[in-house]
Amino acid sequence: MLAIAINRFVSIAIVCYYSKMRSKRRRRTPLSVLDDGHFSVKVYIRIDDGLSWRVVWGFRGKRRAERRVYTEEEATAISDSIWQAYMLGDVDGLEGKPPQTIKQLLERFLARPNLRPSTIRGYKQTLTSFISFLGPNRLLKNISSQDVRRYTASLGPTLSGASKATYLRYVKALFSYAVKREWLKVNPAANVSIRVAKKPVQYLPFNLWEDFLAACQPAHRIRCRFILNTGLRSGELLHARWDWIEEAPDGLVLNVSEDEEQDWFPKWGSSRQIPLSNGAVQALEAAKLRWPGGMYIFCDKPLTAWNSHRETRRACSAIGIKPIKTHALRASFATHLHSLGVDVLTISRLLGHSGVDVLVRHYAGFSNTAARASIQLLNV
Description:
The strands form two sheets. This protein has a four-stranded antiparallel sheet, sandwiched between helices. It has a three-stranded antiparallel sheet with strand order 5-6-7, with no helix packed on it. 49% of the residues lie in helices and 10% in strands. It is an alpha+beta fold. Helix 4 crosses helix 6 (161-180), helix 7 (209-215) packs antiparallel against helix 8 and helix 8 (218-230) runs antiparallel to helix 10. It has three domains: 22-97, no CATH class; 102-180, DNA polymerase, domain 1; 206-379, hpI Integrase, Chain A. It has 15 helices and seven strands. It has helices spanning 2-27, 72-87, 102-110, 117-134, 145-154, 161-180, 209-215, 218-230, 234-239, 278-290, 308-318, 328-339, 344-351, 356-362, 368-376; strands at residues 32-35, 39-46, 52-59, 65-69, 245-248, 251-256, 272-275. The N and C termini lie far apart (106 Å).
């Protein structure tokens, strides 16, 4: 009798234990947590297919890594090891502890993937002068907008207003990156500005689109046609994959999204969906013939750039117009939509801008055709 009672007691205890564990798992309550607001290491228990522990770690808002072990001691040891590696800035596949000084921020900023050597040189030359002005060991949290204003005021008279504005733009980009990664709450350069004479928006008038495309080399023609019909950035174009294309009730759409395999992400806030026009679909069909069988739409292997500016200048010269940059094709897309009466908010969202002010300042050109049509309204 005593043996039966003991067995029954043990069975009840086991059932209660596993019920408690299942309840914990349903609530997904970690057994241990190491977290500083940017990076965390958590240990969970699993009982679905035998008792085991999961160690999950990663940066907030990013894809996390995971490892499964079968003893609590091993899970605790792994958790502590990963946290120590993070504190030392040495976690495999992750970027380490958030930077504390302006020099450390610059190192992270320049170490981003997919930056061209010329881009790195430009950033480094400009931002090194800013860091020298502040001092390399200046803490990020202590930098204010007044520091940025003092820096812009210190720029010599030999620099033009446009050059000073470029310096400030790079400083803003540096701090925007820190805000994006949640290392800073506010961009100290956000409200600092330098007045420069505004240049006309560079764009290709719609009536010249086909002449321009006909003058392009075959591969360049396919890419430019797609940019003209979608407003895609060059970087987005080169990372565009066939799985970005989806069927929609009114046709095809392009989903601009992250490429975790290549560690590529759209410009901050630029993930979006773009309905595809007939011209864009035509470019897709040509791309399928030009680069068959691959995962990328507009190249047969991962690229960070192509000879776009040179090819665009040659096409412009061939049809006898003033050379433009390939990036101006985005402005051509925006200007044409605006001339058709599309509102600026819709155009801004199609381009992936953070606000309509960017569109108004840099992308929407003044269409003479639209201007003449507007004046004709007075003749009614």
